[in-house]
Write a structure and sequence with these properties.
Elements (H helix, E strand, L loop, with lengths): L1 H5 L13 E4 L2 E4 H22 L22 H8 L22 H8 L14 E4 L2 E4 L8 H5 L14 E9 L3 H10 L5 E4 L6 H10 L4 E7 L20 H12 L7 E6 L1 H4 L2 H14 L2 E4 L8 H7 L4 E3 L2 E2 L6 H18 L1 E7 L2 H11 L2 H4 L2 E2 L9
Parallel strand pairs: 5-6, 5-12, 5-13, 6-7, 7-8, 8-9, 9-10, 11-12
Antiparallel strand pairs: 1-2, 3-4
Helix pairs in contact: 6-7, 8-10, 12-13
Amino acid sequence: MADDLSAPLGKKKHSIKGLSLKLGAREWPLTGILFAVSGLIISAFVVQILLVDDPEGGQPVVEVPISSTLNSNPVAQQVGTSPEQGLTIISGDENAPKVIVVEQEQFQEENTQRERTDFGVYPELMEQTQNGPIPRIGPNGQSPFVAYARPSIGIEAAAGQPLIAVIITGMGLNQSATLDAIANLPDNFTLAFAPYARTIERTAAAARAGGHEILLEVPMEPFDYPNSDPGPHTLLTGNPAKVNLDRLFWLMSRMGGYTGMINNMGARFTSSATDLSPFMEELGARGIGFIDDGSSNRSLSRQLAGANQVHFARADIALDTNPSRAAILGMLNELEDKARQEGSAIGVISALPVSISSLISWAAQLEEKGILLVPASALMDN
């Protein structure tokens, strides 16, 4: 009764219970209509799930590039077997990629049409790590060895003309002396940089700008370690492989644009197959060359480089074990004789002022002797 008295005059207040909607000549319960609409919506979602191939379920998706230092990429492994041709993709059936072969000359032509980063590398040949960028084989199969090698005549094309490569080690430790050497040395001298130089990025950039091919020195354990200590992050026998690889990645990140590495000391390390094998496997997987400085007859570097398709050479003569001008010039004459006898020869020399000045005067006479000075990569095989 109270509800009726409080209702507006002439109208009754109806309870919400039993609300209905009149459509045409028939009344339909509003609750039933809402249940029917909800059922249709749910049925539509079920049909979409059954018929649409969308495993992500409509959720946002972010693609993240993943890089790995493991030899899990068959493309990279195949590239390692044919670095001169730059084999980029493995052949397969009609659903697999085709083989693409790009000659080294084409790579070198492409290199002139692209720019390096401030670190001195091509972006596609770089893997970012916690220590900085380190080399890797590019997505098109090009290796850092091929990309950063200085163009040169090879042994076959020389047609019997003696070829000599000289590698100058210890570059970068003295900045002013290094910059002077870069400015005065012929550009076919190969420069190997110590990883501990404070201004290594600057001096390495100057060497690249001067047209020099560059190498990175890697410290390895000698037999009398630690009495003779190559420095921090030395690769040591008996270390777990992961520890030595972590040290290697730190060393690799010191500078960019190098074709390969050369050992600093390392007579014990290079004689241990257990310890040297993971190192060579990593160089092969990343397309980096290796030069043995020739200081140890027990070194297994040639065998393990060959097993991992690493571009390799072994130096023939240490040129300044006696750091005097007369002695250095005498060793350079021996290097010439070896090149005439065998077609090519590689010498290693330190970045002492007397060594640099001796090389400059010696190189000025090579043309009249019929000997060609070439970068180290020209004399490296795999």
